[in-house]
Amino acid sequence: MSSHPIASDADAAPASDAAPASDADAVPAPASAPPSEPVPAADHRRLGRELELFDTDPLIGSGLPYWLPDGAEIRHTLEEFIRDRERRAGYRHVYSPVLGKRELYEISGHWQHYQDDMFPPMDLGSEQVVLRPSLCPHHALIYRSRARSHRELPLRIAELGGMYRSELSGVLGGLTRVRAIQLNDAHVFCTPEQAADEAVAALELIAGAHRALGIRPVRYRLSLPDGGIQSGSGKYVADPELWERAIALLTEVLRRSGVPFEAVEGEAAFYGPKIDVQIADAAGRESTLSTVQIDFHQPERFDLRYIGPDGAKHRPVMVHRSVIGSVERVVAHLIELYGGAFPAWLAPTQLVLLPLSERERARTEQVRERCLDLGLRAEVAGPERGTLGARIREARLVPYQAILGPREAADDLLALRLRDGRRPDPLPVGEALARIGALVGACAQELWDERASAVGRG
Ligand SMILES: [Zn+2]
Questions:
Q1: Dist. CA 77 → ligand 1 center (Å)
Q2: Burial bucket for residue 109 (CB in 10 Å: 0-12, 13-18, 19+)
Q3: Torsions phi, psi of 240, nearest 5?
Q4: Residue extents of the structural domains in the chain
Q5: Mean pLDDT to the nearest integer, 298-305
Q6: pLDDT reported for residue 37
Q7: Which of 62, 100, 192, 425 lies 20 to 30 Å from 54, alpha-carbon distance?
Q8: CATH classification of 5-338 is 3.30.930.10, yes or no?
Q9: Strands 317-322, 313-314: parallel, antiparallel or unpaired by DSSP?
Q10: Over the chain, what is the mean pLDDT?
Q11: What is the distance in A from the centroid of ligand 1 to the CA of 394?
Q12: CA of 29 to the centre of ligand 1 (A)
């Protein structure tokens, strides 16, 4: 049971639950790696340690990983990627605190329906504050911070923000079951008439981001309540009419999007149904990455309003959506998907520069400066790190390697070796870096554009 898209979804379904990809048209195709690329290895926890991306320390606690510099580069790149996509889709970004007063969650309903997953409240003088289990209540208050007109709607508020989940230590591991979660979240406040369009647009945003990342979902799930809604078990907010409206709208959204889906009972959030975009890990275990929800409940609880064209007050609808889910889960998935051989735009180090000897050192450092000026992440691996062969092997997961010998240094050339084994003709440094920069800027899956080379030489 869940308070929010991702909060609920740390529960990976059993392996037998995993379904094969059912629709090649609607679901983004996977990255087609050339055959000589490294084969994705199984477990993100092992790879995360080997590649020095993240780790944990018993003194910080289980389920509380820290990010090492290379992992932090990937995370930062992903966060900027998603912010850029959201900006283009009309979202505005906010920051809100990871703490809130207990009363806030009593109003939202988390206190009544989700307390088992929340950390205990902290006493602060005469009040109690809690680590937030979701971002929704904060965003509802941001909406409510002043009067809203129908002309402002849909109002799309996005945040990459922290939230917390009091998982039992027995089930924690790696980046997939964590107690501190960085969520890619957003809430669209809109009129009831706009809700379906906004949810359809959110699904398109999700599919586009998945394509760029090479992520291939295994299925779309319409997550419904179970019998608890009728029995008044306390698992869900009791308002059958609102549930029915939301379910009807999400069903319409899925039909309009043309994606095949399965309706599954017992997977809804406590305040409403949701569309979950499911992925599977290397072991075939399914989990939710992205979600879209239509929520009539929280606007009621927070008494949200907008002034309509008629001058009267109306109730907006909240569309909750997450494009890449939590940063932790999506990075875990990408580590397993690529086995550490990330597309160039995501790779922690994009270019390794290999001076043949100390004589080319100064020249190599200049090339590195030029890379940094272009926003490329480049490193120099000099002779102090071993023979040329050893240095090349050490950098085998880096998308681009460039050896600088006397000729390259004298003629201002770059002789590139691509991770997949290709070796384009040496190019002037500026041109080689511009081509890499163009591929990185386009979030390309390919490492090289042969046609650009041909044009460049012609
Ligand atoms: Zn939400």
A1: 24
A2: buried
A3: -50, -35
A4: 5-338, 351-457
A5: 96
A6: 42
A7: 100
A8: yes
A9: unpaired
A10: 87
A11: 43
A12: 28
Q: What would the pLDDT profile of 159-184 be if each residue is shown by its tens digit?
A: 999 999 998 776 667 898 899 999 99
DSSP 95: -
Q: Compute the distance between CA of residue 2 and CA of residue 118 in angstroms, rounded to an integer.
A: 11
- Residue 89: CB partners within 8 Å, gap ≥ 6? 156, 201, 205
pLDDT value of residue 177: 85
Between CA 268 and CA 285 the distance in angstroms is: 19
Q: How far apart are CA 211 and CA 290, in angstroms?
A: 13
- Long-range pairs for 388-393: beta carbons < 8 A, 24 or more residues apart: 388/354, 388/356, 391/352, 391/354, 392/354, 392/417
Helix/strand/coil for 177:
strand
The CB density around residue 150, as the number of other CB atoms within 10 Å, is: 15
Please tell me whether the peptide bond between 154 and the residue prior to it is cis, using omega within 30 degrees of 0: yes
What is the token pair recorded at 297?
A: 């409940």
Q: What is the Å distance from ligand 1's center to 319 Cα? A: 8
Calpha distance 321→258 (Å, rounded): 19
Ligand 1 centre distance from Cα of residue 240 (Å): 20
pLDDT of 25 over the 50 cut: no
CA of 408 to the centre of ligand 1 (A): 54
pLDDT of res. 30: 35
CATH 3.40.50.720 fits 351-457, yes or no: no
The confidence score (pLDDT) of residue 452 equals 72
Average pLDDT over residues 206-233: 85
CA of 196 to the centre of ligand 1 (A): 16
Instruction: Tell me how crowded residue 162 is: count the other CB atoms within 10 A of its CB.
Output: 17
Cα separation, 361 vs 405, in Å, equals 10
